[in-house]
Amino acid sequence: MKIAVIGTGYVGLVTGVSLAEIGHHVRCVDVDVRKIEQLRTGKVTIWEPGLEELMVKNMAKGRLYFTTDYEVALEQAQVIYIAVGTPESEDGSANTQFVEQAAKQIATMIRDDVVVVMKSTVPVGTNDRIYQLLQENLKHNVRVDVASNPEFLREGSAIEDAFRGDRIVVGANNLKAFEMLEEVNKPFGIPIFKTDIRSAEMIKYASNAFLATKISFINEIANICERVGANVDLVAQGMGMDKRIGHPFLKAGIGYGGSCFPKDTKALIQLAGNVAYDFKLLEGVVKVNQERQTILVERLLERFHSIEGKQITVLGLSFKPNTDDMREATSIIITESLIQLGAHVVCYDPVAMDNAKGILNTEITFASNMIEALGNSDAALILTEWDEFKEVDVQVFKQMKSPIVFDGRNCYAPEVMAEMQIEYYSIGRPNIPITIVK
Ligand code: UDX
Q1: 153 a known binding residue?
Q2: Fold of the CATH domain 203-279
Q3: How far is the CA of 130 from the centre of ligand 1 (A)?
Q4: Mutate to test the pocket of ligand 1, among 152, 154, 205, 318 (most ligand atoms within 8 A of CB)
Q5: Extents of the domains making up the chain
Q6: Which end of the chain is flanked by fewer CB atoms within 10 Å, N or C?
Q7: Pathway, according to UniProt (predicted)?
Q8: Is 411 noted as a catalytic residue in this protein?
Q9: 3-state helix/strand/coil string of the chain
């Protein structure tokens, strides 16, 4: 089939590449000239395992094409995906202006019948509005249908998720749209859940809000574990064995970040508020997460009283491993607090440092590896559970001025750290007291 994808951000690019991989002819369009130029040279604009190989392969096969020209992209398209950003507005609601602009462009340009598919995360009711907008702005006598098809891709495993996701949700109000999307998605071999448009829009928000709730829940349990001498990792393991609960998203840590959870939870609270509903549970989830983000700084202050003039190493900057994405990363808040408290901050991340340099405080020093980052420091904070940190010989911490580690992601066994004479604080697990020799 001939498909156009509007927006080559995270979702648009992965969608375009995966649709080309299953045999469709895909044209991706973006207003960002530099981005399109880069993609045309076969270089991806985001760090995502497996994406570049698939992109280059499908470009070479002539199934994937990038352009800044809407006319070229939309020409003869049977299905048009909208995958532009819906950033958070000041009041927490999702800003749909880019989605609306895309719809207007489509309406003025199409000359054949199409199905417009919404990939962007939009508040419930947006697709109905987009349908109206399309009808009002049509320049030719063609039929336009609208479908909601939310994405559930995780950064770092987006390719895996695109080909092996649990479900594809399609919301539509007519047979033709369902049939077209069934035909498009069939080669993925993933179950398709067909529903009405508003329910499909809601599934996306409800899913992300539920996952965020699991995280805040286990983080609260971690706080209690610390007070009663239980181990949150073992508690989560035992809970997860119950199929009704499940293991995923029960990892206690320093809270959730990224481009989806913080934005979508606030948007759902706002959406509920618009229909006079107070979503108390989700408000609690968001509050718990906000408090969570500074927990390591509080622990550092409990330990040192003042960190003025101290050198603190921060390991891991991206909001989670296997991505260079810094959006809503806890490292932003933590490094800023450390600087405000007078510390000298040395950071290291395996892939996110280039992105971080434009975002984090300019007083921060960036080290080129873990060893360099740790040398001469008074304490180390682990914010992202990269394999490089988890698999390191913990001896590496012994070269610090004082081997004191605050681990926000439970990367190491407390017994091992105690044996190595490393003072170690983790999340929701009993501390094993040691006497520092140095
Ligand atoms: C998420 C959803 O998983 C995906 O379905 C949606 O489409 C987009 O948002 P993503 O933002 O890529 O994906 O990251 P995810 O792996 O879900 O993690 C989000 C945050 O939660 C990270 O900061 C992570 O560190 C944190 N997290 C996750 C935990 O603290 N504990 C967990 O058990 C799981």
Answers
A1: yes
A2: N-(1-d-carboxylethyl)-l-norvaline Dehydrogenase; domain 2 (1.10.1040)
A3: 29
A4: 154
A5: 2-195, 203-279, 293-425
A6: C
A7: Nucleotide-sugar biosynthesis; UDP-alpha-D-glucuronate biosynthesis; UDP-alpha-D-glucuronate from UDP-alpha-D-glucose: step 1/1
A8: no
A9: CEEEEECCCHHHHHHHHHHHHCCCEEEEECCCHHHHHHHHCCCCCCCCCCHHHHHHHHHHCCCEEEECCHHHHHCCCCEEEECCCCCECCCCCECCHHHHHHHHHHHHHCCCCEEEEECCCCCCCHHHHHHHHHHHHCCCCCCEEEEECCCCCCCCCHHHHHHHCCCEEEECCCHHHHHHHHHHHHHHCCCEEEECHHHHHHHHHHHHHHHHHHHHHHHHHHHHHHHHCCCHHHHHHHHHCCCCCCCCCCCCCCCCCCCCHHHHHHHHHHHHHHCCCCCHHHHHHHHHHHHHCCHHHHHHHHHHCCCCCCEEEEECCCCCCCCCCCCCCHHHHHHHHHHHCCCEEEEECCCCHHHHHCCCCCCCEECCCHHHHHCCCCEEEECCCCHHHHCCCHHHHHHCCCCEEEECCCCCCHHHHHHCCCEEECCCCCCCCCCCCC
Catalytic residue among 28, 225, 260, 347: 260
383-435 confidence digits (pLDDT tens):
999 999 999 999 999 999 999 999 999 999 999 999 999 999 999 998 887 75
- ipTM for this model: 0.95
- Asked if residue 320 has its Cβ within 6 Å of ligand 1, the reply is yes
